Amino acid sequence: MKIKADYKIIILIFGFAVFSGLLYLRLSFERDVKHDLYPLNSFKYKKNFFTEKITGLEFTKIEKGSFFMGSPENDHLKNRDEEPLTLIEVDSFYISATEVSNKDFGLFVKDTGYKTTSEKEGFSWIFSNLTGKWEKKKGLSWKNPGYDTKEDSPVVHVSFFDAKAFADWLTSKYKKRVFRLPFEYEWEYAAKEGSDNISYFYNNNETLCTFINGADISAKNYFQGWKINNCNDGFIFTAPVRYLKPSNSGLYNMLGNVWEWCDSKYFPVIQKKNKRIYGKKAKVVIRGGSFYSKPKYLRFTERDYLSSPEKRGYDIGFRIVMTEN
Q1: Bridge partners of 31?
Q2: How many helices (H) and strands (E) does the chain have?
Q3: Given this structure, which CATH class describes domain 43-324?
Q4: Beta strands per DSSP E along the chain
Q5: How many CB atoms lie within 10 A of CB 316?
Q6: What is the DSSP string of 211-222?
Q7: Alpha helices in 26-159 (DSSP H)
Q8: Pure H helices in the chain
Q9: CA distance 228 to 256
Q10: Cα–Cα distance between 163 and 261 in angstroms, integer?
Q11: Which of 35, 101, 215, 290 has the fewest CB atoms within 10 Å, measured from its CB?
Q12: Nearest to 287 by CA among 183, 164, 134
């Protein structure tokens, strides 16, 4: 991957800039990111490094490093909010190998008596294949998602606050470990795994459905008129969190299955520093796409958001990260 860099040199005479065509120079060149600015293959990890004792969630350790967040100039699929390509320094962290399942979330609810936003307000959002629109529907919650699920399916219809409450609950069980939602740059760093081939799965039907549960042939009749992935993973809605193949670092469903909450405010351009979510009036980043996602949205740099941390839906879930004090 190459990045174009432009440098302007203005010759100063007696402290004043001279804007003469003869004295104004523009130097343009390309630098090879992979071998010069940033060694992309330096991404390091340790699979199944830590198992959380209460839920059994396994975590991969992602070592400290740096990477370019966003999409390169030559990516024809990118959106404007995937710019500018930004060098980010990342501290080491642990990320759950899977999305949090119904079983995991149920342990939290059983221990605390917690009621989700959907349960308290009495509704959630679902996409209607009849109207082709998102609709509020009464009675939907993580216990009743609107389609068949199992204990090992990812929990859905959870708001940002619900996901955060789960992480805070786990934190309360340990003295030196903090559980939380991933920052957006952590999520992308773990998902990319040091690769610059961010659109690898796009139209790659030989491998897509072995790793990703997106909108495909199995969902064609349900999502009528949808542009689909031309393969079949066997699931219209969510797949069990360990059903499909994991990435090299042991992470399942970083693309597809459910959109995942991040503890990051959404901005229409890439930010150098993460801004966490406080209060109820923030656009909150979600990443990864879902079973409902068309091919274009199943990319490591695809960004989206929900307009409030209280929002939720039948394809919104989460995974967590852990750091040590």
Answers
A1: 3
A2: 5, 17
A3: alpha beta
A4: 2-10, 12-13, 16-17, 24-32, 45-51, 58-62, 65-69, 86-90, 93-96, 123-128, 133-138, 177-180, 259-265, 284-287, 303-306, 316-317, 321-324
A5: 25
A6: H-B-SBGGGTTT
A7: 102-112, 117-121
A8: 102-112, 117-121, 160-171, 184-192, 205-211
A9: 13
A10: 8
A11: 35
A12: 183
The amino acid at residue 306 is L
Helices (H), 181-311: 184-192, 205-211
101: β partners: 154
Kindly state the helix (H) or strand (E) to which residue 11 belongs, with its residue range. Answer: none
Q: Are 269 and 278 in contact (CB under 8 A)?
A: no
Token pair 């969190």 is at which residue? 241
Which ranges in the chain are annotated with CATH 3.90.1580.10? 43-324
Cβ atoms of residues 223 and 216 within 8 Å: no
